[in-house]
Design brief:
Order of helices and strands: HEHEHEEHHEEEEEEEEEEE
Strand content: 25-35%
Radius of gyration: 17 Å
Distance between the termini: 27 Å
CATH architecture: Sandwich
Structural class: alpha+beta
CATH topology: Jelly Rolls
Number of strands: 15
Number of helices: 5
Largest sheet: 7 strands, antiparallel
Amino acid sequence: MDLTLDWPRIAADLDATGCAVTPPLLGAADCTALAALYDDPAPFRSRVVMARHGFGRGEYRYFAYPLPDPLPALRAALYAGLAPMAERWRLAMGGAGEPFPTSLDAFLARCHAAGQAKPTPLLLSYGPGDYNCLHQDLYGPHVFPLQATILLSAPGRDFEGGEFVLTEQRPRMQSRVEVVPLAQGQAVIFAVNHRPVQGTRGIYRVAMRHGVSRVRAGLRRTLGIILHDAA
């Protein structure tokens, strides 16, 4: 899949706020088809009911390998566009760990060699009153620092409320909150764990967390594209 995106603009937005919104990556028909997969357990390896674990309310399913179309191409294209930014962030935050390879296959081979072999792309489903607590998607020592969420439902038609929320915990300062409105098919790309910030005395790192505010009505389904696999 060739994602024709303005990667320099995305990089600038990520540097400025820790998130960037894309034009629609999926058409309405593809969004509807992917959202409908949630009701068939066959493509998935596990189901998580958030309330059982204190994660919020709602639920999600992790896909099994092989991933259904268009996920493999979408995941690979997002990785290829984001890998230069991930490497730049790694160096800015001290250069710990190995350089990020240019291809998703090479990065996943590294994850799998370390025992992180479970696929992490997932579908999330929220009904009235459901929400997702602030969290980070960390599944082992190998972490790609950026991920994406694609809104599959149409706001205002399929659901109300349910805004994507990102918080930034700055050292010795109050947390900053970013609310990101999305249209059907749009993605928000955001920092998984930490991001570098240029301060008056050099670069420092801030911790990022993301979640979803309460859905007031309807059914909200999203596709999560995490680029590292899980142990």
